[in-house]
Records
---
Amino acid sequence: MPVVLETIGLTKRFTGLIATNDVSLRIEKGARHALIGPNGAGKTTLINLLTGVLRPSAGRILLDGEDIGDVPTHKRVGLGIVRTFQINQLFGDLTPLETIGLAVSERRGQGLDWWRIVGSRSDLVAESVEILERFRLTDVIAERTAVLPYGKQRLLEIAVAIACRPRVLLLDEPAAGVPEDERHEILAAVGDLPEDVTVLLIEHDMDIVFSFADRISVLVNGSLFVEGTPEDVARDPRVKAVYLGEEMVDA
Amino acid sequence: MVPPPHSAVRAATEWLSARARWHPLEILFWVGAFASIWLLPDKHLILTEIAWLALFALSLDLILGYAGIISLGHAAFFGVGSYVAALLAKHEIINEPVLAMLVAGGAAMALGFATSFLVLRGSDLTRLMVTLGIALLLRELANRYGWLTGGADGLQGVTMQPIFGMYRFDMFGHNGYVYSLVVLFILFLLARRLVNSPFGLSLMSVKGNPLRASAIGISVDARLVAIYSIAAFYAGVAGALLAQTTSFASLEVFSFDRSADLLLVLIIGGAGYLYGGLIGAIIFKVMQDYLSVLTPQYWPFWIGMVLMVIVLVGRDRITQWTTPIRKLAMRLDWRTPTAPGAAGEGR
């Protein structure tokens, strides 16, 4: 499989801290790639680098072999790199319908249209409704996002990203904070993502990682520690040591 | 890929466009405004002031209520519009007032575009200081270049030509009022169109969560530059209306008081639904007029008092006072969808 997204020697230094240290990562087209690691390993920093929220101190980011290091965040979305957030970043005052409609209209390059009334393009509305149906959000389509149950908001996080038609989707702990009984809905949504979308999943929950991923990279202290198939990683004694160590610290 | 329209899509279209539909109270508002041309002929001078102040406040609402940019220097654009309109007439460069007004708005817009890059970065406090600074700077420039602006005496000897070469600015302000009201109405319609468009929705998303807005491909900076420039045009036109209806421009157009009063006007009326600036302008001017007759020297005291009451009681509770009116409005609006969701209630 061809490599879609690649980083070469990616490094991010903050004062007195190396958050990402010489990370070279290759993500294949259509992969279900998981990125795991203990707290503070630099997983979210890596996503911020990939999406352009942060500028790397060194190293390169390639999409289909093209360097996108200088492309600003919003243009990377246009190139197909789309993310979700670990902590909901939604538009509290807009409805899910407006949120998805906005993402769809921006993707179609109609965001500067100031003359047409929102909702006057029936194909755009149809696509938005279709996405909302796919994420089982039809019952809250016209509610204010801020008052939605947390699980619904998590679903909307992923739905907004899908509305941007990603080629590479970066999922930052999609199930974080979701109560146990609503968890399966998120997992089903993640499992049902279109096959042609390449997914990089950041997750703490090992059950999710091992049921979803076909490739796993382990990040420790900003560096790539181990990479391989789920079987390889599960068997690797060093990974066990890292996680056991963390559990002992947590205890 | 896209399924054929079905009932869910129809309902969604209905919800999305609900906000853009004309509410009966809106129609009533504008019928009342235009009826004042015939019903209140002896009040046309103060009504003219209300009209340009309303337009000015509408301009602030576009950036504050819809894009979240706070400004304490909006008078900068008002002032530029004022001086440009007055200078164009005085030196007989553009004699036709409507064209001159558009040019004045354009000049303010150019300034808005140029200074927008200064307000992109930083917090609300930074923006307050930067906008305030720009207005103060312009005031001093106008003071310094007295040969052009008339300095502290103001720009005198301005003679306005008739609108479209037909309607003279009469001394009772009748034509001036009709002119101002029509300009306000047209620019209001455009603003109303804008805020209900995909562009307007994207502004609200930028205001609500810039991080996510850029994560769905919106260039946050470009959108803010666009709306700031458009708002500057509106403010410039408001300033031009003042200059044209009074045949005068003075340093006072740039004053800090004017920017601060404007914020007050918008707070009284409420930001983020377009009518706030209009209603605020009516309340502010009527209150000012009434109080200044009552206590010619101390009326700012009462304005200050009202401001404190509004802020302390809180906008939320003030909107609760109007709940009965809004309920009545809901009942009046036969087109409001009764389907679940907040789309029909507006916000």
---
Amino acid sequence: MRHAGVRRGLFLLAAVTMAAGAGAAEPTHAFVGARLVPIVGEPVQDGVLVIEGGTIRAIGPAGAVSVPAGATVHDVAGKVILPGLVDTHSHIGGGRAADGSAPIQPDTSVLDAINARDAGFQRARAGGITTVNVMPGSGHLMSGRTVYLKLRAGDTIEDLLIRTADGRVAGGMKMANGTNSRRDPPFPGTRGKSAALVRAAFVEAQEYRRKLEAAGDDSSKRPDRDLRLEALLEVLDGRRVVHHHTHRHDDILTVLRLQKEFGFRLVLQHVSEAWKVADEIAAAGVASSIIVVDSPGGKLETMDVAFGNGRALEERGALVGFHTDDWITDSRLFLRSAGLAVRAGMSRKGALYGMTMAGARMLDLQDRIGSLEAGKDADFVVLSGDPLSVYTRVLETWVEGNRVFDLERPEDERIADGGYGAGQPRQEALACLEGGGER
Amino acid sequence: MRPAAHGRTAVALAVGAAAAVCAAPSGIEAAPLVVKAGTVYTMAGEPIQGGVVVVEDGRIVAVGPAAGTSVPPGAQVLEAAVVTPGLIDAHSVVGLSGYLNQPHDQDQLERSSPVQPELRAIDAYDARERLVAWIRGFGVTTIHTGHGPGALVSGQTLVAKTRGETVEEAVVVPVAMIAATLGESAVVEEKGKAPGTRGKLAAMLRADLVKAGEYAAKRERAKESEPVPRDLRLEALGRVLTGELPLLVTAQRHQDIMTALRLQGEFGFRLVLDGAADAHLLIDEIRAAGVPVIVHPTMGRAVGETENLSMRTAARLADAGIPIALQSGFEDYVPKTRVVLFEAALAAARGLGRVRALAAVTIDAARLLGIDDRIGSLEVGKDGDLALYDGDPFEYTSHCERVVIAGEVFPGEQIRH
């Protein structure tokens, strides 16, 4: 019943494709009849989406976009297609970077710690997530480098990496303030000390840069390589975005103050009390990735977390995205966060932008993902109906032209809904837990 | 699809608890209250399109189509797109487990001893806890709450309305069930301490139930001149053996569910299964035992002993005729509580359907808790507990606009900061 149409279309046209012969070098698919929500641009009621290889070739209304000869046609009438969802903060794969030896460890990376075979990855695909920022925990002022992953079919972390134009592994830097990073020595014991340690680290990196610049091309004058400071310089030079865990209104303002002093690029993460300081966040021109949870509390810093954060930030023109913080919320139900934000007054358009394009911008991937536009990666989700309805199912998830989740496959349905063995080998993913996840 | 077309016999077992039900609500509102709605889900028959509910002195005095129902003069009138009975959260720890999650507001689990059935929920329930008002905002008017899972026998539970400033004002059933847990979460981690294994959990529970039976027999035989000293612990367990109180057994893994059924067979107590993440593997066994299930939160985290949970379990059990209710459960971090409305919503979308999911948080939950003579449906004579929504109560983007408890009107969800 669910999406028999898609299957039927595939089946019928497989023969056509074969008859057409090996014309195109890359497999071409056309999705016909769905409501397309491109995010950039207006929705198309009866649309055609054409992908070739891993790239979107064309998108538009039926009639305006023709189905290329030899394309596999998918009948998706009555369905809704969104760009692949972007989860800007997750812990799938359970990776930890920094350890208990120091509060600031930019030389560590969660890249070296993620279990790519964790069931959390397929659960994220089941939720329509195609790109995810996997972060280390929040028990440190700086707990290490994050990685931006494409949820391609793959068993190793290398299969999922995204490369920047200059060939680096795409990712950010995880920072935190508030109570999680206040711990026994060598960690800071107060908020004042937390900020002082961060300032000292950035000042140290500035000094390191000065020495590097003074040495110029003279290698004999160069300071010894310092991997820790090199990573901090990436942050100061804007090549690595800071993803800053922060909850309380005063902690949010502290992050904004440090950002202004050192000029690093910043995405506020969680931002539980954003509604109290939305004007200040908007004035700073800083992006927020918010979480929507079912009740306040659970820890002192989240006593005033609100469904209305999305609305408060949107009304002031600030950039708002969403995250699962999986396993705080379930990747399979990521769209629910947008639904609840709309419940509290955010616009539907803004909430869907927040699930896709806003996240892409926060990860510097806006030229490749986040919207359905010709030339962008063929990352998208086929839904059974209204993206913000509890009754809607994620039917299929496609990453770079490959279907990585299909609700019609029994093994995928079991991941989507649960059942015996569905959790294995999933582990209790590290979330932003009290005490840095060392619970 | 009829609500609650299943399993009345097994649920009827739970009605004994109603014996302990407190006095009916005193009239809160002097003026009668009239609620008009596009759709009234009475949960006692088909939904009424264009319906009206009249509440006087805390109780429902009329329900029916607006056309044929007379409305008292001078009544306060509320309107909504959809009206349901006030929702029932069939198992929670709200009121004992506070939202701050600091030691001072966590009273759901006492770890000093593994078997403490004498711990009363009424001595711990905080009627002013912020989460009580939070869940009420989404339409929850009744909660079954108390000592939580995590100890072999953790204590007693109660049923309360989500109103009142003291437990005395809130309580509906002061002692509803005795809460027990089987499985790894009830195992004590400290080396050398019991219970340290599943086998020991079962052995200790059997031993205490046997002791409680012997104690009751001794008390019965004792001469007035030589009374047997009272033992609050064995008295409480004795109320399980006599069938006065159900034993609420939280058991997630299949082997633990089977142990619960085995003990129930041996001692004949009234068993209510709780959580039951693996219940989808044991449909025949649970049905044969005639045991109702308070199914884990639909969105519960699938880790550890709940790793096999399925969002479709409520539907599968209901399809098999097993009586079910839904719950918010227990959360030890963020969010501090789930909202049973949202859990029912997803269960509805995973095979249960709208009407059966509504039943699982209204009339079916009331039957399971033995309070359906007062609560759970919109019928004349029942408590005036209603939830008013601006659309399908289960949609993410709908709102609970107002809540009525025994005729007293409360604001709906407070989410728009």
